[in-house]
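Handout, section B. The chain below has 640 residues.
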Amino acid sequence: MAAAPGPARPTAPRPSGAAKAPVPPPNPLRLRWFWITLLVLLAANLFITNILLAPAQPTTITLPYNVFKQQVAADNVVTVTTTGDAITGVTKAAVEEPGTGTKATHFTTQRPSFADDSLEPLLEQHGVTINAKPENPPIPFWEQLLLSFGPTLLIVFGLMYLIRRSASAGAGGLLGSFGQSRARVYDAERPGTTFADVAGIDEVKEELEELVDFLKEPQKYERLGGRVPKGVLLIGPPGTGKTLLARAVAGEAKVPFFSQSASEFVEAIVGVGASRVRDLFDKARKAAPAIIFIDELDAIGRSRSSGLRLGSNDEQEQTLNQILTEMDGFEPGTGVIVLSATNRAEILDPALTRPGRFDRRVTLQPPDRRGRAAILKIHAANVPLGPDVDLDDIAGRTPGLVGADLRNLVNEAALGAARKAETVVTSADFYEAIDRILLGTERHLMLSQSDRERIAYHESGHALLGLLVPGADPVRKVTIIPHGGALGVTVQSPIDDRFNYGEDYLRARIVGALGGRGAEQLIYGVVSTGAANDLQQVTMIAREMVVRWGMSAKIGPLAFAEDGQSNALSMVRPYSEATAREVDLEIKRIADECFAEAMRLLTENRNRLDALARALLDEDSLGEEQILSVTGLKRVQVAG
């Protein structure tokens, strides 16, 4: 796993040596200012024509209908205009609007629906000019033309604009900016990560140094007819440093580094993913020598013949096909290398992993003890450590942790020391951080005395069998303080890293896992729900022994594991119903034999079980030395 203080800052690549800077994408600010200017001009035109240049409107008052008739009878009304029941008009002398005191010669009123037809004779009698307007006047011809053809013209001009912009940007037809690659480019002149930031995976670094050497001196290989791999696939569990290692390769080679997650290629619009792939590879060729890094390749590289794919995913398949085409199109000496990372290599399409595309597969494993110590030194380089801190000892207490976990461990230890206002990070801070990561956050629950006693016997059963069973991992700590989702925890860790497991070790794991349930059965005669997680571990280990590792005499040396691509994705069980029943019986037989062994050992050592439980009730937590002192046992020799 590699370690780095932070990710490299993405910037536009600078020219370095033979490398050419990629063509920058169109500046969106220019288009944005164009539209802003257009909107401001339209708003100014509307303001000038409708407000500044509009004729002044005279003051108009509203008169009640009876007052209007009184003004007509008084010969004060000159003209009226009707639009339905609405009446507007002009008077000779100004009239005051009732209730407001406003006077004006222009007025408006409303004829009530119950009014009689005597208004027209009254108006004619007093010489009032009568005008009338239709309630729904016809729309002007220019407005009809605009409403009919305006939306169509707008769409046509919009499409023409997109076509011209796409053609000028080379983004692939009508897709426009959607088809442009979203890859982040890390500056070749300011690499954020180098091989100095990588530790714990030295053998992997050696494999990738050849790529760095090729990017620096391609003539060295080309004159002997050698061809550097077109693609390198980094395979490993999450947190082992695949992404960081790819950045280190780019940092060492000092070339532009185009980084993009595979999921960023795919959109809801079919064809966008393929367009983005074309754009990414085109930019990399223009900036060659360069590195393209595609993270989480399985997001688009899943096998096209997968049995789990119930329907055709055109967009994903088009994107995958485009990647295959682009990698085939590499000419010798282009100086573009594709790095990809995945933790699910078994589901990748065979066409993607064949020679000529991803020629080289580099597997990253969790670091061993020496690798973990080296990773801890990198992460703790800027952390003030106390004199009692032994990073090698801490590495020995963290088997199975990867680089990301170890970085989090150093950070948690530093945060814990800061909370306690310490000036340096001590070994106690690291041990507390290990407990927090492995066991979970400590919870303060108000448990009854009977619950505490049952939990104490349960955890004592685990710890005691960890000392009694040959081949079991040493017991480091036992506690009845709730952590995370557990009410009590027994910590066991191997002295050295294990890469091969003997049958005796696996049976010791099962016996130890059943120790808590066995102790409850022995002391109380009944069991509780506290062994749920233990039983899951027992079932998993026993099943793997039978179907994967051939550790059953009845089943024989056969492997029926369903984690391969051809089996897991096709959802077809690779054995018959009769074999399935035999598998179930063998799993149960192993579990029953191990439980019987656990009960035998606990019964023969009942006094030690009681003493350990009483010590736990008094102290809540016991370390390794305290456990050995209470039980009077010695460390057992670990079997292979």
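Note. Residues 180-363 form a domain with the Rossmann fold fold (CATH 3.40.50.300). Compare this with the example in section A.
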